[in-house]
Amino acid sequence: MIFITGASSGIGEATARAFASRKKNLILTARRLDRIQALARELSAAYGIEAHAFALDVRDRQAVSALVESRKELFSRVTVLVNNAGLAKGLDPFHSGAIDDWELMIDTNLKGLVYVSRAVLPLMVAAGHGHIVHVGSIAGHWNYPKGNVYSATKAGVHALTESMRLDLSGTGLRVTEIAPGMVETEFSEVRLGDRDRAKAVYAGMKPLSAADVADTILWAVERPAHINIQQIVLYPTDQASPTVVHRRTP
Ligand code: NDP
Ligand code: 8X3
Fold first, then answer.
1. pTM, entire model
2. CA-CA distances (angstroms) from residue 90 to 19, 100, 102, 105, 217?
3. For the chain, what are the domain ranges?
């Protein structure tokens, strides 16, 4: 059973499709229930798998623990947890940034990941095997102007990946961080709040697709159980750092 947070769009949705193609059963969560219900229906019909969809806001600590507690028999079957739900909001210098945006990113990218992991990990430890995949970012490894709090949350995801691996040593569980560069999803639209500005982010260059990242997650999970891929950083070939992007002029 593969549990994916933020499965209603982008990397999470593509990851659901990738695991479904391997005939893996799925638990899909996100706030937009209609989208994950449609995806669950589509994938279970196409691949003959079990696909469960639950509305879940990862910022809601009580809702996270209540869901796992109320469906314990289901969550006890989780072998892979993909902590993917996340977002950037705003792109402002620190001294004029919106504190509401910062709280949203911290609550989602960091606290949400912590709530979900704390609820599910005991079940995985009891099972004696399993894999936790964190979707980090290049922003957690290299800073860039106006990336400030988003970068800090992803640096936190990196630190938690390392910490969990230390704490889980001897349990048989694996922990992996996947840190992509530019991926064309709904990410930039959410961050900038404008479709045209979002489109311009990828103008003249070839970004990663959500499927590229999903394929990388699948590869890490499909290594033999004695191999733990600690971290994968993947950039588009057209992107050499957060700010060095090669663009072809039209
Ligand atoms: P999308 O905006 O396409 O997808 C984000 C997903 O996160 C959606 O399914 C959304 O679902 C979910 N989500 C957001 N907030 C919450 C919440 N409070 N509770 C539950 N789910 C939530 O963007 P991406 O697919 O690109 O982003 C996925 C991850 O990849 C994020 O962690 C992002 O930081 C990371 N990333 C993205 C990169 C990029 O360039 N696109 C690069 C590096 C990392 P819903 O709104 O329905 O709740
Ligand atoms: C998303 C990539 O460079 O916009 O995590 O921070 S970046």
1. 0.98
2. 32, 10, 9, 10, 27
3. 2-234
